Fold each of these.
Amino acid sequence: MYRILLADDEGIMLESLKNIISSNYGNECEIHTAKTGRVVVEEAEKYPPDICFMDIQMPGLSGIQAIREIQKFNRSVVFVIITAYDKFNYAKEAVNLGVMEFLTKPVNKKVILEICSKAMERVDSTRQKRSDDLRIREKLETVVPMIESGYINNILLQDDFQTYQDNYRELLDIREEYGYMIVAEFGDSTENGVLTNAVGASVKANKFYSTFREIAQGFFECLVGPIMGNRIVLLVPYRNSRESYEERVEVVTRTRNMVHKLESRIDSKFRCGIGRVKEMGSTMKESFKEAMIALRESTSHVIHIEDVPAAQKYDGEYPRDLERRYEKRVMDKDVAGALSCAEEFIRWMEKQQGVDLEDMRIKILELVMGVEKKAFFAGTVKYAISYRRNYIHEIQEYTDIEGIKKWFLGKTSEICSNMESAREKEAVSIIEKAKSYIRDNYKKDISLDEVSREVDISPYYFSKLFKQETGGNFIEYLTEVRLRNARELLKDSGLSIKEICAESGYSDPNYFSRIFKKYEGVTPSEFRERLR
């Protein structure tokens, strides 16, 4: 079926064209007519034509103007101009507009049918191309997720991945030189920051993977990796080698919004860790590790590695899983768990052939100094080179495995204990810095975002930490500081209410009065009167 629009101000011409086309093509065509430029544009909007025979000289808009208007909302129409004006400028303008044919009246039936047939062929060709494009797109929708999964898998698992890097980037049309990883973790519920039923969640993920992919790519122009246990990895190509503070906050905000939408569409709970920007290729694995550390080191739904300082990893000859467990127990301040891992490590070394007491001492020193360094970079313990001055002497005094074990367990317990008090001090330090900034700047129009920037953590994480440490939110504390100042000024100064309002950080005296009454039970004027 072809939809044809005939536009001419002469009724005889319209009827003649309509009869010629309908008598030869019958039900293959749906024909509409118009006698003015305005009407032809309106008809084209209501009944989008495949082919349009257009006269140039019509009341109101000319045929050329009408073509321009139609092309604004429909670029696929095949235009044929039929006019009594054989002017070069008209023909030139028609060519510029992509008109298929420029005919001068009178035009015989044979020519009309030939042109109509040619226009139909062009319409068929356009439809076929559109159909082919859709078919290719459908196939790509099946293939692209597999290529994306392969790319991310190779980044994480292949040490010699650089060999295939360019091939993948070409297939996926990745032009950015940098990127970062987001690790999305899912489970049935959250308990102490850990998602439960990882195995069951992994099975369910096969059902919701396509929905997850659609939502993730609605928030980020990203590649979506395969299901890995109860995790899915996103790779977000990025234009710069690092993020600014504002960009980092924006990524955290977008990720939080993504998590909310995932949980509204999928029957699972989600957490996301975000790594730093890295160069595309094998170094991208480091961003993945950072995203995983961010998940482990926090109980938040969304956490950026910059908000929870990254841990350092030891790449030794001993069981990595055991080392990771040992580090995690120490960082969790789990004394019993850390001591259990330490004893297991001693037993493992005892079974290794060729390992003597000196080898054990070195390995234990590496482990102890490794977790101390990790704790230092996490900002939870103080550190100086001189603090370890006696380590070698102390451990060499023990001449048997039991003595070395005693030293190892003692140091492990000591580190956990130090971290218990240091972590609390760290959070308090950040909040005290924020409070100090608020006290120094309460007269200004300061916001949570501004204070978050001052202490260099994202607004969401700062808001959570502030409430956790103070028991109230940022606005409540700022209001308390401002009203405390207002009370003092009302007691001891001769300033007017309006002046006190400005000195307390409020620009609107009416709002100041409402806030003051809400917290004090009386207006500023009544408060002052009581003191007299």
Amino acid sequence: MDEDGSAAAPEPVTARAGPRTAGEAADPDAGLVRRLMGVPAPALAIMDATGRVVDANDSFLRLGDVGREALEAGRLRWDALAAPESPAAGAHALDMLRRLGTAGPLETEYVRPDGSRVPVRVSALGLEQPERLLVLVQDLTPRRRAEEALRFLSDASRELAEVRAEPEAILAGVAHLAVSAMATWCLVDVLEEDGSFRRVAQAHREPGREALLREAPRYPPITDAQSPLFQALARGESRVYPDFLPEHRVLMARGAGALAQLEQLGARSVMLVPMRSRGRAVGLLTFASCDVGRRYGSEDLEMVEELARRVVAAVENARLYHQGQDAVRLRDEFLGIASHELKTPLTPLRLRLQMLQRQTEGALRTGEPLSPERLSEGLDVALRQVRKLADLVDNLLDVSRITAGRMKLELEDVDLAALASELVSRFTPSAVQFGCTLELHAPVPVVGRWDRLRVEQVVTNLLTNALKYGAGRPVVVRVEAAGERARLTVQDHGIGIAEEDLGRIFERFERAVSDRHYGGLGLGLYITRQIVEALGGTVRVSSRPGMGSTFTLELPRGAG
């Protein structure tokens, strides 16, 4: 063996130990041929001076995809097997092969009758019978596939290492890399929560067929009881079809139209490999080859499964990176808003205290008494600002408790109607300042077992929002029983909320309007949702821009 593990070129045979039979004496190579032709591997053949293959073992015939009848009929020629551009083909093939005995092996390709090519290493030695050569052929396909797999995984690893890319951009890069290396076309689908597939990337080696690939049928849901293939994929089981037959297409496509589209893509060999994260399928890689002779096997499947593991890790890393970036952005935005909001009450508080200080110092210098009215007014303003600061700090503490899972509830019997009435009375002066009228419709008691202070906090947040965003217009509060649940609605007729913002206003630091025009930390509705869910209830909003908003709170009356 050579150092690289390949078979070394045999030395020319010039002598043989031991007695020969009569037949061997007439044909000095007959015994050698009989022994060698029985060897299953490597591929061996005897060639005469004209380039005709006069004998070969089964490995040689399989490698060239030719039948023994062609050999026996004398129709098998070396120049029909070797690639035309190879030095070991054509008129000088015989001389070239003879030189291989001393010059070492030659790497070239076999051309099969169907046009497909097989990478091979050819060695030869001269036989005692004149003008005959023993040719040894080694199939390099496994080595080439291994090199191809290593290159592909290496290129894929570089592609996947870019954590700053969006996850779907990473998946698109993998699809295009696949078609440049080992697939005619590639599809990437991610698995949604409901079990359906969403196609996020597709690539075709021929740009002109990209449009056809984009119209490729979507896979049936992974939960489809009529699809044993996709049930297997849901369990994380890969599938490889070395020969992609009609019955396999039926498994992948649902309906005649989808089947026709899949057939139009012309796949000859297919691999389906689930992407898995934390023990469950999260997506699917589809590799398809349309090349003659390119049949996927277990080595290819193993390589794509390794790729799937790397893809999932890369997408998760990218997702975490972007989440971290979003968290940093939200933190910076929050700190900017928080500093502004904290300064808002601090400025009038400082000014009022400075004024009180000057008045006090003036009274001490002159000996005149302080005006009780001016002192009371100044203290009232200062206390209002202190309350605002306390509310802001309380909100921050609530977020901290919620994040740490330390929000405690102290349950007691609470009349929601009475609580709403008390809060509406408390907010009436604020409503006057905003130019709003507050209406309450709570005709009967609605009692439940809740945390009074937390429910009060929720209703306070809803009323504060309604007055802030519905200034100058009526705000209506309704309390009623709804079976085993209590329902409270707060309706304003203000600026409203755009549909695309409805889903995010209950998140931390989110707002549907600019903080330049409306103050606040963007925490009130987030805290509201967390409290309501801790009590086993729900809070939702319906709104249209310019038509106001209605927040609906529902709580189970027997929560405990």
Amino acid sequence: MKNFKNILLGLSFLITFISNGQILPVRLTTEMAENPLAVVENQPRLSWKLISKESDASQVAYLILVASSEEKLNNDDGDIWNSGRVNTDKNLHIVYNGKPLKSETKYFWKVKVWNQSGKVSKWSKTTTFRTASLESDLNPTWIGAITKADSHLPEGRNYHTATFNREKKNSFINASDSLARRSIMLRKPFEVKKEIKEAIVYISGLGHYELTINGKKVGNSQFAPLWTDYDKTVNYNVYELSAKEFQKGDNVIGVLLGNGMYNTLAERYTKFFVSFGPPTLFFKMKIKYNDGSEEIIKSDGSWKYSKSPITYNSIFGGEDYNASLEQKGWNRKGFKDRDWKKVVIQEAPKGVLRPQTAPPVTIQKQYEVKTVKELKPNFYVFDMGQNLSGFPTIKVKGKRGQTIRVWVAEGLNEEGTIAQGRSGKPYYYDYTLKGDRVEEWTPKFSFYGYQYVQIENINYKEDKNKELPTLVDLKSNFIYNSAGEAGSFSCSNEIFNKTHELINNSIKSNFQSVFTDCPQREKLGWLEEIQLNGPGLMFNYNLQTFLPATMQNISDSQRENGLIPTIVPEYVIFGGDFTDSPEWGVTGVILPWMYYEYYGDASLLEKYFPVMKNYVDYLGTKATNHIVSHGLGDWYDYGTHPAGYSKNSPIALSATSHYYYGAYLVAKASKLLGKMEDFEKYNALASEIKTAFNKEFFNEETKKYGTNSQFSNAVPIFMDIVEPKNKEAVMQNLLADIKEKGDRLTTGDVGNRYLFQTLARNGENETMYRMHNHYDAPGYGFQIKFGLTTLTEQWDPRKGNSWNHFMLGQIEEWFYQSLAGIKSDPEKPGFKHFFIQPEVVGDMTFAKADYQSVYGKIASSWEKKDGKFILTVQIPVNTTATIKLPVAKNSEIKIDNKKVRAGYNEKDKKPILELGSGIYTIECTI
């Protein structure tokens, strides 16, 4: 119960400011973000969470003030908007309804609420938001070292297609040292004559940039801005700077540019070759002075550039740095830039300039060397203890001009050297010393998935060989998106605990600009992982501002005929089923629904309804009598056959079921949005597809679907395609196959979720337990026994390629929803009302999980002890929960040591309790 003691302490700390019986709004957000710097909407939505000392607390009214200055807000002057008292329990997505908002303007707001007893709260803390700049206001000028025309980079969309033709490949090669590929430094001196109030920076450096003011890095982003299809959308970042960032007199803006996905290189390893143009920069800084005047500094022809010490940078191939080429103080005042060249004005990227509203990628953790082996004299392999997505930091000393080559990899060869054969080779980092005492270096524009580091021809810590450089220190940097974690899970079963850890290390490794498949070989946004792992992703991470960016990328990548490709952004076109597979494309339909269910926010359904509808219409053009027959099917399904295309189950069964599911969800969206004509059309279409599916794939005599595989029978049950009269028989066929296979799965990337949830939702959690509580393949336990720290692409890591994939991680949904029992109510999305209905399975003695919902923390912790079942729950203010207890109808039930009479659910055969907000300990006799 330690977890819940911490919950109580944290809650007590928060509510020490609340008077007895009151309620307090906290964690105010605008468009789901705290203090956002680039709100696009003219009528942004305002939200807050609530805390209270009382149980069963709720909001009955609110009053919002929005002001043009903090001073006015402190005086309760809502000169921009005073909502007046609004009688409602709604505390999420309140649409701003004040004076028209100006672009590039900061606003201040606060809220107070009334509770169920009519008592008014104190004012919340002040929060802010800035409105985004219109593109016409930005009036961007793009600058760099060379124009696109002079760079001779391949032009046209066809260049974005993959090629493995070596003759064609060679024609694409541009030397990495050329200005078309080379990392460059740009600088702009400016003078400050007056006292600065604040400065706002708008910047997009493509492919990636690092910005400094007077030599100090601005922000903590890695690989900014986030990846997009640069022909459709170009992200820019916004930074709010205080006066202390500047100095009276001379100041310098410095920008370092790298290639990223904008401009890949053919040297060393690369998955594909693509270029949207040479490295380029857009910059605008608006300085506001204390006297009310303003000054704007922009990217223009007055800037200068020079080649940077980064002599090679490729998102796929690695990075080289020559410290002897450093120009000390290049981004500070007093530097003589007479040898630098004037920038050229470049062609702007084709995409629409949009503010990046998704969180940045940052360095989240650092690992020290765990073990080191000297395979032969001065030849070292370091185990960093964790497979991850990132790059090393090295500290070295030696002679000027000496070079250290750093190889990284997920695994080792038999002789103990690093193995890149599965993950893409050659990939390495070269550092050339300047010969100045101990030197420290961290790459900036390339990352890889690795656990092991190999360095040859060095001393390690001690200067044994005076002719070789010495590695003084080595660290491993784990990078992933800074969206933040939303939940935690643990239980009495160590296989499940370690599985949870494996999966989340893989999710984090692939939680970059987009959700990638792997952090080494491809780094591509294969879509199916997002929807098939969607509930697990949302329980574990705060995706409120990340998923809207994902949907923008999906919208950008949708073809004119409605096709949503398998990878987004579509930097490479693989063709055939690897471009067009319904299980992947339907993510554009499923994701807005998941977002609505978990966050109570219909904005993605509203904005991307045409995307959803057009995709279903596209599948209709590929169907014959409502049967769709193309795609990858249940990719990587398990068996003795090689992994790849679905072998156990018909591809047409998979494709058609997802066509049905897409039509069904578009019909639901139509109804929710009041588009009744569309509802009638897609509801009828879904019914017709269901009829065709059952006619094509269901055997009335045997009650089996397709090949009677686990996927074949599970997916129609999960999607409610099977007729109710046949459901139990199909379920028994599914269970019989699982038993025949020794309680082992035969599903794949697509089928796992449908299998797991079909069992969980139909009272077969004991079967789920047996299927996963072992150390054999297929199963998570085999990977644990293998000694891995991340989830792999195949159940047997020796057969697969990547050792850092999260596509098989669908069991996370079961951990949270079944073992801990935290389950949303579809009728009241966003967990306004929810269920806590834990499953006690196998020999488990406890399980606990918490989830930071949009209303506040939800927690469920149960244990079996001394013949009793003890459940502690936390229910956020302004929500309610139905507790379904896994005990007999006649069990004695106490809440906080007081006997209560529970209701009874005849369907589930479980006692139930209806509770309002608060923390409760429920004790039942078993």
Amino acid sequence: MGAGAAGALVAIQLCETAARRRIPFDLLLIDPAPEAGRGTAYSTLDPRHRLNVPAGRMSCYPDDPGHFVRWLCHHGEPGVRGGDFAERYRYGAYLADTLGRAIMAAQGVVGVRRLRTRAIGCHWTTRPGADPSARLELADGGTVEAHHVVLATGPSRATAEWAPEDLRGSDRFIADPWAPGALDAALGQRHKEDVLLVGTGLTSVDIAMTLNRPGRTVHTVSRGGRLPQPHAVDPLPAAACTTPLPGLSLAALRAEVRQHIGRVMRTHGDWRPAVDGLRPVTAEIWASMSTAERAEFMARDGSLWNTHRHRMPPATAESVGRMRRTRRMRTYQGRLASASARPDGSLTVSLATADGPRTLPVGWVVNCTGPGLRLPGTADPLWRSLLDQGAAVPGPLSMGVATDHGRLRGADGGATRPLWTLGAPRRGELWETTAIPEIREQAAAIAEAVLDPWTAPALPADGGRAPRRARRPMDTSGFPLSTHAAAATAYRLGVDRLLKVRAGAPRALRRSVALDPGFALGHAALALIGHECGADVDVSRALADARRAVRERADDYERSFVDVVSRRVLRSPADGDAALLRHLEEYPGDALALAVAVPTIAFSGLRDLDGTTALRVVERTAQAHGGGWFHTSLLAFMRQEQGRYDEAGTLAERALAAEPASGHAMHALAHVHYERGDHEAGRERLERWLAHQGRGGTHRAHFSWHAALHELALEDAAAVRRRWAEQLSPGKVHGVRALVDSGSLLWRARLAGAWQGPFPIGDVLDSAPAAVLERPATAFVALHAAIALTAAGDLPGLRRLRVHALRGDEVQRSVIAPLCTAFEDILEERWAEAARGFERLLPRLPGVGGSAAQREIVEETLLFALVSAGHRDAARDRLEERLDRRSSPHDRRRLTALSS
């Protein structure tokens, strides 16, 4: 009952949890509003009304904090950041859209109906041998029955009991400014009278901005006379209090909080981190207070707390400050004492203020006192019916209702009815419970409580016999899957395409989770290829789905794999690598995990600096794979990384004979030809493979890049230009691949002097998402972002990338950040400094991932810097060393030029 923000959040969790667990039920949403998800708070169309919580903390999902920010990025605001304050109307659209998607995903499992009316009564009946059920009376005269009821009614309407009787009867008194059309008269062109807003909280601030117009003064009055404090433009992290606060007397609590704020002020110069640091323990502190202490806090400290805890967005604060500086907004500490009508219909109001009586002529008085807190005496017929029959009782200080973790307590003291509430009705118990970060947690808990009785039981904890289960389908490697046959078939197809480096893997994996939203491995594989392969996947969302699903339905193998993906996405590279090694130790036959471990063409691999760990993994897992084509392909790649080119070539040819479409084997062979200096043969073999078995490959651009390397070595500039136009230009290559292959080729061509005329690096940058350029998730992608930005001469972009790297994992901090500095030196023609920077970093480059041929671009840039700095001997030494390893007409010509 109620389909605003709180109701939408519960409905989203119910639909998604039921779809994962395959629990069928009917969901009924009862709310008179034209659109679900908005409620009163998010229906405003005024763009000046913004959220008072940053977008990064407004996700629908407790375990996916960036969901709202990503939604904004995909819905017309690509540059939004987590610290931005979005328009409230946009958040309403987000809630409605997310709810719609959840309902669509649960089709066939959850039947959803919506009634545009109000519930005005709820009466419980219990029949012998049956669960309790509710009969809901509706405002339109109808009734419905339900087995579980969630009261998502939101905050109570503001009361006007404080207003003088004459004022309450005036058509110039606006009792509810959020009611549709309530402010129309005050906004009319004919009326420019001043207005009085009773209340100085966030509601008052919003209404003041709406009613602001030239020639009008907006007066505001409240007992405290305080406006909300502003959020910081550049906020600092929350600072937790070092002293345990729950259990202290109110006097001791005040003293400790003051000391905590003082310490934070001295350290950071700002009180906000101190207040934010209290948020995790606010409910615990409130629960530890006695009734008398809570009452005293409300009377003495409540206003001060609210103005500092519930703050204005910076843009709102700037607007309010401008209104106050120009005297178009005035604030008083006091109360409205009386109001009388004037001959023209306007009002004369008398204020009793701290500075003495004050009389004001105003056109309207607007009630901005905020929602009512106390439940007894409520006019809401739904809550009245529950109170009258003893199904609900008031909470502490008569604020809201009493609950047991959201389940309503009745007059008998128990919480026996399947009746829940969340948000504002729990304020008496929790105090802080009206913001989305708290409500979304409560919504998830309610969904769990409602659906848990229908969830299939887990295996017996006492070692008893488990119920007999149907045989589970297998994955590509022979491990059982916790899903049904159709989803398993789609998953196997997706993994098979990943192992062969062929197109279609994301589509097949999406199909697997569409068929079974509770299939953990399907979600995990999607998160993996989004994070490491640049697939068009909402990585955070897929990972959150995988982690939810694996808690509900999975075996040890599946839990281990999801843990690997979680750590690679969320933790440091070292942590992710350690988890992957543990997984392969336990499950050496897992081909997908092995593909992730080896830095070939599909994944970044294990990021050890000496490059031996991946080799040991491949050798140790050989027995489990029995010489199959996939393992042989990976072994071929590792042998060429060791410089054992003859053996690598033999293994690659063996794998291709068994599976001609094996992209990993062809990739190993491409490296063998390049490192041997067999440039003509290498280009020809790649051309044949691309024209036949490689036509459906997902990394065709990378094989084209390999062919272009041969052409650069052969100094065939015309062939490089043709290959760019036909196979590597943006439009033919997209996203991360455009950055890694197309962008790096352009930079190599420029360094080699093989590119004359217009330089299309701007097209590459335009085809890559801004987040990939400025906030790349892996060091390997960050390296190529730095190269592309350097090729474009984008010095500010390089500096932003360096700042991001300094906030990243150890490899980004220690390798990518100084690499950005060296590339900056290139752009500013500090050649010697650039050369020294690259020289220091070359030994650490393997930790970035990728192949030696890909990382060689840094050495190419180093050679360019050495020659530009006049260090010809050092450049000659490097070229001679390379020519000792492999033949290259281009390197031979450069060496000759340096020796002349």
